[in-house]
UniProtKB/TrEMBL annotation:
This is HTH cro/C1-type domain-containing protein. It comes from Micromonospora sonchi. The lineage of its organism: Bacteria, Bacillati, Actinomycetota, Actinomycetes, Micromonosporales. InterPro entries: Cro/C1-type_HTH, Lambda_DNA-bd_dom_sf. Signal peptide: none annotated. Gene3D superfamilies: lambda repressor-like DNA-binding domains. Pfam families: HTH_31. Residues 5-60 form the HTH cro/C1-type domain. GO terms for molecular function: DNA binding.
Amino acid sequence: MGRRVAQWRVRRNMTQQQFADRLGKSKSWVDKVERGVRRLERVSNLREIADALRIDVQVLLAERPAHPAPADAGVERIRAALARYHVEGAPRPPDLAQLRASLEHAKQSYRHARYPVLLALLPGLLDAVRVARPNRATDALLVPVYGLIALTLVKVDQGELAWLAADRGMAVALATEDPQVSAVATVPLCQALRCCGRNGAALRAAVVAAHRLVLSGSGAVVGLDGAAPRGAGARSLRGTLLLQAALAAADRTDHDSARKLVDQAAEVAEVGSYGGGGFGPAAVRAVRVLVEAARGDLPTATVRHERLLAGESWRWLPPEHRAGYLLDVARVYASTGEMFRAGRTLLEAEGTARSEVHDRPAARDLVAALMAGSTTAPAALTRLAATLGAT
């Protein structure tokens, strides 16, 4: 950036002293900027320099807007796959090992927020599993495939289509007459319903599924993170459902119910042995922060947030979970006018899982809002906004 400043200064026929006088800075300050010794960390400094050079900030940053729309083609392929109602059965028994391997790859892609990869992978995986039916083993695979499709569509703001995919998964799960498999399908269903603003339906679905899970008999949980012994897997699943219910209650401004549901999830987390999936004390604390923020108690939420990030269990959460939570916190800061803190938190989310920011329309909207409402945003946020075309 310093070299670009120097190049544009020379093009404007200004000496370092003349440029410094125009900025109200010292010649030494300009020299350090141009040599890269002094970094430009604030948007206000960038804008002052750009104005003095009579150029746009984006030119100074030398970033080409990416105008990303990687989701469009992938969403259409998923839509087409969901619209294929008649799928012929396979002439030979399915290679279940290969299907499970493909499903595991998709799960890992989701945990690391690789949404373009998922949008390209999931339509073919759905077709392959559906072709392998009818088969009890492939039914167990079909539920998490529909669930992953729904979760990915939520990330790219395709709520109604996500609801359709989640509903398909729920239909397959209910046909198994296994409350645990139904509970697995309920998690993405709740997220899809919340994405569509149907928080009441999401709350009821999560509470019912969690209750039925408690009453269910022995067996194995086959979920988005693979089979797990009933004890650990069922606890993890029940805790996740309670957290989904808490978030839905908070979205409905039913704050008392939200806090009680988080408390119930905390009791589940205290047992330990969660069976994977990202549930545990850190997940509970993250939702508690968002519930406190929804109540309007930002000081308490901020203290809890800082303690969460300082704790060792924070790193146990998958990158997608951490980055998604950080985006939610950034929105909270932005809604209260804390634009600088919102920008810093959003950049933390980008560093945690790049696709969570670069490939989500909601994240781009947040970047644009931060740029419009702040004069002290970090320079890195300005560069991000230029890259996303969100300025």
